[in-house]
Write a structure and sequence with these properties.
The structure holds 2 protein chains of 2 kinds. By secondary structure, chain A is mainly α. Helix content of chain A is about 70%, strand content about 0%. Chain B is about 5% helix and about 50% strand. The chains are: A mainly alpha, B mainly beta. Chains A and B meet through helix 2, helix 3 and helix 4 of A and strand 15, helix 1 and strand 68 of B.
Chain lengths: ~80, ~1200
């Protein structure tokens, strides 16, 4: 039992520290949100990738970067209606 | 599966990326001089701007083997040296300093804070430093912020604290800046958005009401923790922050730049807002809002200003007005903002203002520019917009204001630094029929795009070219006195005489020099203090300062065939094979050594080294004989003309030169014997200073003519000029001190000599046919020459004409008005008597319009006219996406130009209203194009390929084969080859390799009898393919969007089965494996390059070199993959790699192996860039590694440099 508790605590610590760490009850919405935000963060963070996209869009890098962080707010869309 | 690959490649960068991620300014050397540090890809480079000449030269560059994301410079209070903080993907913060004496970066601190890699919550994206150097903040896009306190200890060393956390979950950061607060507690400002509510609200209201906040984080130095001190909503579109000077210099606070407006904000000040002026003009959309994309703040004595740049490239000068008190003194209270148009420069990723009055623009695309300030726009006629007329409330929209862009008034361009970024496509081809091919590439963005030719070579600037009365055989220059700084005479030898020219204001013939003018000359030397000697076939003429002449006649029936001289010794070889040796006496006369040495064959060449400092003679004489040997003879008094060593050669030597050069192995300078052969081969061997032994021979083929060698001086170092069919220069690389041999971009010379005069201190004089040429070499740091031809729009792809040296480039730009739309708008404006002036698009860009495309096909002639010779604009909002030159069997194998286009394309999310395939016929030898017809297809065809006399296209996920009809293309057969979108097609035989945008590559076989396309092998890993090439029938090399290069091979069995005769029924009916084709490709090699490969090609880069893979990267990298031949070499380099990674871990703390295996473990590849780091190591570490590998330092260096020079530059 103690082991199980420790595992749980470890998992919780991980989840607090690293956003996006999943758990048994991760919903599709949460998972998608994380994937979307992780992807945008990665596009912004890798300089060649950002400038590749900027050239593709014909916009300056800074504009594309801002646009992508803006998209991170919404992530993959509005959450599903909760059924209580 | 075997753990090691059967195939090993050596990856090497021959041109590092030229895109600049960020540039910073500081006094990194600890002197008052400012340097620029730039991050390009994984390279950290320090540059020295030279204000007197208006130039920027790189001083030192190091590969950190990690992705550099952010840089910051800081200085501790009271110190005068700036340190550099680097934010990379290593999950660590790195502080380095530049050590000018050693010309190296030295790491001071390396603190781990998180996981490696570029992740959403691992800091590294933003890096800001308190202006007083007391603390820095490193933040991620989401949640995490870490503050490090910087201080110094009692030994005045820099210390760094453990990190203080200022995390807040579910917060996105748009921008960060450090506030200038003087010596109060450091404050960092951030633009943040909290998305927690939006994530909980299914209705979407919360998302619409999301607020953007300006947040202040204060580091309490007393309590040693960080608090969120203040926050206030700002404009929803805010995206950038700039620090406003504080303390004694200004009011402190920040500028918040949003779409269409800039606001001054501070916690204890009123807000002030100015709009960002929009361009006025008939082709401009008056509704279009601008955004600030980069900027810089500059502090001068008692004043400061901002230069802020919009996406059009327009720079605006922004100043703050302060409230005056009753006595007319300025208070710390802000009265308002003022903004006005300054000038237009290319869109920058970093702007830097130097104290010496220069502006450095690290361009986002294309060449980087260096400008000098002519004035600061203080008293010009530009309209100034003040914040007085605008409300500071972010919810109130600002009234737009307009300005008229104009030519530069305040800035003067002094230098452009070549940059290939973004490099979109390239081809290796030899169009000029030189011995080595050139690299042709298309790069740039928008109106600053260019077609560039890259060639291996050094740039030569010619000073004089003059024709002589007849063809000279040789030329020398000489001083009159040993102490003279410059040369006084040019001596020309002709078949039957000698001509002496004096160098002064003008160059003219002199006759009273004492030189024998009726015989050809073999050698000229300034001897002793003030005498000259001339060696001619009949004897030696010793000319004293008072023009008296002592003559030593050659013995009867013999003549002098070769001679070698230095300032104290003379050696001549007679036609009988005897060597006569002279030395200068104490009284300045030449004394003959009493014995003559008889050589076995005819002597072809001789060389004496320079007299070493503090000695009376050079102790070796090198003698080359026609029996294909070189002998080293001793010149020591007790063993004069005795044999020391012999070197056998593959051909008779044509030239010899003993020369001391800088040496990377010993760190000092080492004497080398350079040997040129009649066969055009050049050798360089180390000459042992004591024993005269020859060792470490390196060979290089220079050209078809016998090699001649000359000692010259370039940029303060001794170099060897080697002449064969092309002139070459051998010199030490400025950074690594390794030996480089580079062709000169110049005519073939027959003879060369050093030349030094008041006008040209380090020049060379040469003979080419009947011409005398004087030239110099200005730069040794760049051995790739670039020639640039401007293009109209962003290039997308290009092809070569099948026979002519012409290229066809397709170009397209999104959100740009097409020429016809522009013309219509201008017509309208003319009708309304409006403004019809158009600004040059190269500087100001094209007028923009959302949803519009401008696209054209241009014919480029890179050889003769070096320009675009024909252009064809596409109409109806079509944009070209692919191009191929395809021979059609139905038209008697006539080659047509096929261009794929997309109509009304939207980049993200991708959509279009269909595509077209245009057919053009080449006219006038390809210099013009005739439109034949176009065929509508469902989607833009992203790839086209000539396949067995027909056209293969990728349309969406369909691979389709067309034949040419009279009115349109005729569909012949098709298959769904890949899951998503075909982006690349390659072929050999009846096999087509199909590259998918997300799903790697699939091999498809075409069965002619049945007219079917059958995919038979695909990949198990999703690779986001950019470009591929077939290395052989089974193997394909390719690159992906994440910066990997890979080689995939089809299993032999699957490959054979696919080509079996018959219907292919067995292939069609074979069961697919895991929802794919029946077979899987095997991975042969995988390597992370960090730059996105945009072209991969199998080619040779040097004459006589092997086939290698040449790839170019998006940021301007040119790299190669060299296949290893022997297993021993692989083992050696693997061990070396391991030793290097262990002994000299990468500067920014990224583990080398993990870096190269960023997305997938490195397989079958050796990192040549890491191996070449060996040259940069201090000697003791070099020896340590050499001992570990059981080899000598010289041997290791030789192996490393051989890997490069055998196949590339």
């Amino acid at each position: 039992m103690a082991d199980k508790l420790r595992t749980l605590q470890n998992l919780e610590a991980l989840q607090a520290r690293y956003v996006g760490t999943g758990h048994a009850d991760t919903t599709k919405y949460e998972w998608l949100q994380n994937i979307t935000r992780d992807s945008y963060a990665s596009y912004i963070g890798h300089p060649p990738l950002l400038s590749y996209m900027a050239v593709g869009m014909g916009e300056p890098k800074e504009k594309v970067r801002t646009m992508m962080i803006e998209k991170m707010i919404r992530g993959s869309g509005a959450p599903p209606e909760t059924q209580e | 599966m075997a753990t090691t690959s059967h195939m090993f490649m050596y990856s090497l960068t021959i041109q590092p990326p030229t895109a600049i991620t960020q540039a910073i300014l500081g006094q990194f050397a600890g002197t008052r001089e400012q340097q620029i540090v730039t991050a390009s890809g994984s390279k950290l480079t320090i540059h020295r701007p030279d204000p007197t000449q208006g130039r920027i030269t790189p001083i030192f560059s190091q590969d950190v083997f990690g992705i550099i994301r952010s840089l910051a410079a800081f200085r501790l209070a009271g110190s005068n040296k700036d340190y550099i903080i680097i934010g990379t993907d290593s999950g660590r913060i790195t502080i380095v300093e530049y050590i000018p004496s050693a010309n190296r970066f030295n790491r001071i601190h390396l603190e781990t804070f998180g996981k490696s890699g570029i992740r959403r919550v691992v800091p590294g994206q933003y890096l800001v430093v308190d202006p007083k150097g007391r603390a820095c903040l490193i933040a991620s896009v989401e949640k995490n912020k870490l503050v490090y306190v910087l201080n110094r200890n009692s030994q005045a060393e820099l210390t760094i604290s453990s990190p203080l956390e200022a995390h807040k979950p579910q917060i996105l950061v748009f921008a960060m800046a450090a506030l200038d607060v003087g010596y109060e507690n450091p404050i960092f400002a951030a633009i943040e958005v909290d998305y927690s509510e939006s994530d909980q609200d299914p209705t979407g209201h919360a998302f619409e009401e999301v607020e953007k906040l300006l947040v202040y984080y204060e580091l309490d130095l007393g309590l040693n923790h960080v608090v969120r001190k203040w926050s206030d909503p700002v404009d929803r579109t805010a995206s950038m922050l700039f620090q406003v000077p504080g303390g004694a210099d200004g009011p402190s606070g920040v500028l918040v730049c949003a779409e269409d407006n800039i606001t001054y904000r501070h916690s204890n000040q009123d807000a002030f807002r100015v709009p960002i002026p929009r361009r006025s003009g008939s082709t401009e959309n008056p509704e279009r809002k601008r955004q600030i994309v980069s900027g810089v703040m500059h502090k001068m004595r008692g004043a400061f200003f901002f230069l802020l740049q919009t996406e059009d490239g327009d720079l605006f000068k922004l100043t703050l007005d302060m409230v005056e008190d009753d006595n007319g003194q300025l208070t710390g209270e802000v009265k308002g903002l003022k903004i006005k148009y300054f000038d237009t420069v290319p869109v920058a990723s970093s702007l830097l203002i130097l104290k010496s009055g220069f502006l450095y623009v690290a361009s986002e695309a294309g060449n980087h520019n260096f400008y000098q300030f002519e004035k600061l726009g203080d008293d010009d006629e530009e309209t100034e917009f003040s914040s007085d007329s605008f409300s500071a409330d972010p919810s109130v929209p600002v009234e737009p204001v307009y300005f008229r862009p104009r030519g530069a008034e305040n800035l003067n361009l002094v230098e452009t630094l070549n940059s290939l970024n973004p490099l979109i496509d390239s081809k290796v081809a030899n169009l000029t029929d030189e011995d080595a091919p050139q690299i042709y590439s298309v790069c740039g963005m928008g109106a600053r795009s260019s077609f560039r030719t890259l060639k291996h070579g050094l740039e030569v600037s010619e000073i004089v070219e003059s024709e002589l009365p007849s063809v000279p055989s040789a030329v020398w220059t000489t001083k009159l006195n040993r102490a003279d700084e410059f040369d006084a005479y040019i001596i020309l030898s002709f078949a039957n005489g000698t001509l002496v020219l004096s160098i002064g204001e003008t160059v003219e013939e002199v006759t009273d020099t004492g030189f024998l003018s009726t015989a050809p000359t073999l050698a000229v030397q300034q001897l002793g203090e003030d005498t000259l000697i001339q060696i001619h076939p009949r004897g030696i003429r010793h000319i004293l300062a008072d023009r008296r002449v002592n003559e030593w006649p050659a013995p009867q029936h013999r003549s002098i065939v070769a001679a070698a001289t230095n300032e104290r010794q003379v050696a001549v070889a007679l036609s009988s094979g005897e060597i006569v040796y002279f030395e200068m006496d104490v009284d300045g006369s030449l004394a003959e050594y009493d014995e003559r040495r008889q050589m076995s064959g005819t002597v072809t060449c001789l060389s004496l080294g320079e007299v070493p400092e503090g000695r009376v003679r050079s102790s070796f004489l090198a003698v080359g004989c026609d029996d294909s040997t070189v002998r080293i003879l001793s010149l020591d008094p007790d063993s004069t003309l005795e044999n020391k060593s012999v070197q056998a050669l593959t051909a008779a030597p044509s030239a010899l030169s003993i020369m001391s050069m800088a040496d990377s192995s010993s760190g000092g300078s080492t004497p080398y014997l350079h040997i040129g052969l009649y066969s055009g081969v050049y050798l360089r061997t180390v000459l042992d200073e004591v024993t005269g032994e020859l060792s470490d021979t390196r060979t290089r083929f220079l050209g078809a003519k016998p090699v001649k060698l000359f000692r010259v001086s370039v940029k303060g170092q001794t170099a060897v000029l080697a002449l064969s069919s092309r002139p070459w220069l051998g010199y030490s690389d400025i950074q690594t001190k390794g030996f480089m041999l580079t062709p000169l971009d110049y005519v073939g010379l027959e003879w060369g000599w050093n030349f030094s005069s008041e006008q040209c201190e380090e020049g060379m004089v040469g003979i080419q046919g009947q011409n005398l040429r004087i030239f110099s070499i200005e730069k040794l740091d760049n051995n790739m020459l670039q020639e640039s031809i401007p293009l109209s729009y962003t290039p997308r792809r290009f092809v070569q004409h099948p026979e002519q040296p012409l290229f066809y480039v397709i170009e397209s730009d999104n959100n740009i008005l097409s020429p016809s739309t522009r013309a219509t708008l201008l017509e309208d404006a003319k009708a309304r008597n409006g403004d019809v002036a158009m600004l040059p698009p190269e500087e100001f860009g094209y007028p923009r319009g959302t949803g519009h495309w401008a696209s054209c096909i241009q014919v480029v002639d890179p050889l003769i006219s070096k320009s675009v010779i024909y252009s064809l604009e596409l109409e109806d909002n079509e944009a070209a996406v692919s191009i191929a030159a395809v021979p059609f069997s139905s038209q008697d194998d006539e080659v047509f130009l096929v261009v794929g286009t997309g109509k009304d394309m939207i980049v993200s999310p991708p959509s279009s209203s269909g595509g077209f395939i245009h057919i053009y016929r080449f006219q006038e030898n390809g210099t013009e194009l005739e439109f034949i017809h176009k065929t509508k297809v469902e989607e833009p065809p992203l790839s086209l390929l000539g396949f067995q006399g027909r056209l293969a296209t990728g349309i969406g996920a369909n691979l389709r084969i067309y034949d040419l009809g009279m009115k349109q293309l005729l569909r012949k057969c098709q298959t769904v080859a890949t899951p998503n979108l075909i982006v690349d097609l390659q072929t050999q035989g009846s096999r087509i390799v199909v590259g998918d945008v997300r799903e790697s590559i699939t091999y498809v076989v075409y069965k002619y009898q049945e007219n079917v396309l059958i995919p038979f092998v695909d990949d198990s890993v999703p690779r986001w393919t950019t470009k591929t090439t077939m290395v052989d029938y089974e193997t394909t090399a390719g690159g992906d969007k994440f910066g990997n290069l890979w080689l995939l091979r089809c299993p032999r069995k699957a490959s054979d089965e696919a080509d079996e005769d018959g219907s292919g029924a067995h292939l069609i009916h074979e069961r697919g494996y895991l929802q794919g084709t029946p077979n899987r490709l095997e991975l042969m090699a995988h390597f992370y390059t960090q730059d996105i490969p945009t072209s991969v090609q199998k080619a040779q880069l040097v004459a006589g070199g092997r086939d290698i893979l040449v790839w170019t990267g998006f940021q301007g990298t040119v790299g190669i993959f060299v296949p290893f031949i022997s297993r021993e070499d692989v083992d050696f380099f693997q061990n070396l790699e391991m030793q290097l990674a262990a002994q000299t871990p990468p500067l920014a703390g990224r583990d080398h192996l993990i870096y190269r295996g960023y997305y997938a473990p490195v397989k079958g590849a050796i990192d040549g860039d890491l191996c070449e780091m060996y040259f940069l190591l201090p000697n003791d570490i070099k020896m340590m590694i050499a001992a570990e590998l059981d080899r000598s330092v010289r041997e290791i260096e030789r192996k490393i440099s051989d890997m490069r020079t055998r196949v590339a530059y």
